Give the backbone structure.
Amino acid sequence: MKTLGTEFKVGLFTLVAISTLVYMFFVLSPDSFESGKRNNFYTIIGDAAGIISKTHVKTNGVIIGKVKNVRLDVNMTRIDMEIDVSVKIPVGSHIEVRTRGLLGDVFLEIIRAEDSGQYIPKGGMILKSEGTTDIQAVLALAGSIGRDVKKITQVLAEVMGSDDGKRSLGEIVENIHGGTVDFRKSLAALRGAVGDRPEDVKAIVANIKEFTQGLRKVMDEGNQAKLQHIISSFDESMIDVKGATKNIRLIAEKVERGEGTLGKLLSDESTIAEIEGAIKDLREVLSPVKKLEVGVEYRGEFRNDQTGQNYFNMVFRTRPDRYYLLGATDVQNAQVDRTTETITEEPVVDDDPTTTQTREIIRERQALRINLQFAKRFGPLAVRFGLFESTGGFAGDLYLFRERLKISAEAFDWKTKDNEYRRVAHLKAYASVLFFNHLSAIAGVDDLTRLDPDTGKENTKPKYYFGAGLSFNDNDLRTLFGAAALAR
């Protein structure tokens, strides 16, 4: 047979290599050629260990999408996902981080709720399931147990392996041996004492005989009647107990057959379903309370007119996309607004002249003011409304650069019949930059449409200000208070 040429061998090897690459791309990596339509969803979790871009997203064990992006937000991690448009996710579904096998292959499993006809819209949030445990947590627990066992064996080795430990163990064995010897000696002494003094044994037997005779006297005919009465009373009580037991058995049988209110309650599946639904609704109502995060904020502002203002707020965050703000603010002096009103009085008699009077209206605002606001997040944009410095208003916040930069605009203290000191309202715009997750710098302009009390026109020079802020969340406060307690 003629030997194959070098060119034929090279060509054959090239065809095999190309076939292998085609198999790898089209069979082992089908995700690279997917072109179907997908909807975007996201979830918020505390620990995203092992989750990377293109991590599989499954439901009921079937791959329905993949992870598009993983990015870190404040104190949590946001995971953006792409899911096949044909898969509907009912409202109430949740997501779990699971691990396949001991090698730690991580994927996301969507636990879909019952189909109620309402679905999570695209771009919506899928809540993370609480109380789940994956293989990493199990391995961590096993490692912790192993370390504890190792500490115990190490202590035993140190105790038993040293000369003092061996000496102590020998003393324990000697003490046990000495105790058994002493016990044997005590038994021998007791046997000898009984053998040497039989009269004592006879006295003990006589005492037992005397006790039985006294017991016989107690059980005479008069006392026997009393005992019989007690026994008969006990028999009557047992009859009542048997009757009660019978009634209980009858009630249990009725309940088992579904008779009566309690029987219908336990046997009717619709009633049980309603109770389970009520309990589920109650859990959903109480769930935000369990997830409540509390933050504390302070902000000081210093204006170009030599005045200042301080803000102290508490933020109650029930979900990542909404929070409640409660706080107070003060000014250095109570603010006084003055307006002048001219009153013209018509003459009573034709000969009387027309009189004109001028009245000055003074409005003094309190130095301490309350902030009570509700906020809702829509991606990077947040909307707030409620009380701003004890007056109604609303505001908007724009978060940029991973929430390091916040641009805000507020409108409150609107122009009314009794409040004509501004063209429209108290308008305020400012920007704040966050440093080290706690410290922030602030700059902005305040009260843009306020009228000059002397000219009645808007101020041409804006009132600008600078400031600084400090913020903590509940985890920081617990750490701070714990360190203070240890310091004591």
User: Anything to note?
Assistant: The chain has a mean pLDDT of 78. The first strand starts at residue 38 and ends at 45. Residues 154 and 484 are 35 Å apart (CA to CA).
